Amino acid sequence: MAAQRSAGIDSYLAKAALLPSVTYHNQMIYTQPSGLNNRSTLSGSQTNQVFIANNAVHEYASQAVVNETIGLKQFAGAQLAAANAARANAELEVARRGLVSTVVSLYYSVSTTAEKAQLNTEALREASQFTAMTKKREAAREVAHADVVRAQLQEQQKQRDMNDANLAAEKARLELAVLLFPDPRTSFTTADPNHAPALLPTHDEIHQLASKNNPEMRSALAQVNAANASVKAAKAAYLPDLGLNFAYGIDAPQFAKNGPEGTRNLGYAISGTLDIPVWDWFSTQKKVKQSEIQRDAAKVSLTAAQRRLIANLEESYAEAAAARDQLTLLDESVQTAAESLKLTKLRYEAGESTALEVVDAQNSYLAARTARADGVVRYESALAALQVLTGSI
After folding, report:
1. Cα 68 to Cα 272: distance, rounded to the nearest angstrom
2. Is-contact 61 30, C-beta < 8 A?
3. Over residues 217-234, mean pLDDT
């Protein structure tokens, strides 16, 4: 943002340099007398001065001065500043979208880690209930003590998993809070990640949006425009510059509107200069060559940005489409794992399955629900990446 504001000011200054500048000039010069008197001037007899470049022993200047320099270099400089400002605007948009993408990623990370923490809490409760069941059945001499050991090991593992999940959730909340609040410890909540995912736009809609509103492309194009302006500015050194000067005021031995004997001191003067470049040891030629090299590099960067945009769009769309298609399968996996856990527990209560099978069913159910949560984040993140590329977020 600071670079964008600074470039905007540079563009203003470059355009202002094309306009005349006005200065109110005031000066008093005292020169040592030469010793020769009775110097005849329009203002009367005066003592001559030591320095011949000075006009009198006492000289006063009070003038409004208007200066204007006309040359191709000044106009090329304004174009260069405008192109740099456009590029800074595009880079600001790139940074803004990057910030949005980061917040989106952290947001769903908070939601997912919170859901995983909840899943691990439920898994711990399930493991505790299974441990209690095995102890009762052991007391009734229906199962061996090995089942109790397996259940206790499972419960202990779920306790560790829950602690790790809670820690991950807290870390994710702090990372997001750093970008949202003055105090990262501020409490906040996020929406339930199990809501219906947003619809994926069509392939053609994505490409149309990206072609119209992509800051990386605008930045690369502005860089080419800036390089072209730099070439023009370098070539302008071959051409002459015209300088115009208009001064109105006094420049006389007396600081007064009129001098002795009614001589008028107040007046104006106009001057013009034309500086024609003749020889600079090929410095201008080298600067032109240097700017042309930078222009060619900018064109290569533009072409690379175009190819990179196409690749990023295809990759992001394929990722989003794959994540969307897998959400249905993940939902089915959760339902299947839940049904399997329910049936395995019933079979265990009936003495038809082992404790190991119950533990496996519990782990499968937890893995399915965790994969479902990760799948939602994967799809939402891929969709957000597309929206960042197309400028719709």
Report:
1. 10
2. no
3. 90
Asked whether the beta carbons of 151 and 130 are under 8 A apart, the reply is: yes
Alpha helices in the chain, H assignment, sequence order: 2-16, 72-139, 145-180, 203-212, 215-235, 283-349, 355-390
What is the mean pLDDT of the segment spanning 64-72? Answer: 87
Residue 70 has pLDDT above 90, yes or no: no
CB atoms within 10 A of CB 137: 18
DSSP 182: S
Nearest to 102 by CA among 384, 383, 391, 379: 384
Q: Given this model, what pLDDT does residue 197 score? A: 66
pTM, rounded to two decimals: 0.69
CA dist., res. 89 & res. 219, Å (int): 8
Report the chain's mean pLDDT, rounded to a whole number: 86
Confidence of residue 373 (pLDDT cuts 50, 70, 90): confident
Q: Find all residues with CB under 8 Å of 293, minimum gap 6, and list them.
A: none
Q: For residue 46, what is the enclosing H or E element?
A: strand 44-46
Query: What are the backbone dihedrals phi and psi of residue 87, each rounded to the nearest 5 degrees, phi first?
Result: -65, -40
Q: Are 162 and 154 within 8 A, CB to CB? A: no
pLDDT tens digits, residue range 114-146? 888 988 998 898 889 888 988 888 888 888 888
Question: What single string gives the DSSP state of each residue in 229-262?
Answer: HHHHHHHGGGS-EEEEEEEEEEEESSSSSB-GGG
| Backbone φ and ψ of 41, nearest 5° | -135, 175
Residue 243: φ, ψ to 5°: -110, 130
Mean pLDDT of 45-50: 70
In whole angstroms, give the CA distance from residue 294 to residue 301: 10
Highest mean pLDDT among 34-43, 196-205, 230-239: 230-239
Residue 378 contacts residue 365 (beta carbons within 8 Å): no
Bridge partner list, 41? 44
CA distance 79 to 337: 65
Q: How far apart are CA 8 and CA 116, in angstroms?
A: 47
Amino acid letter, 187: S
Which pair of structure tokens corresponds to residue 38?
């009775």
Alpha-carbon gap, residue 355 to 345, rounded angstroms: 9
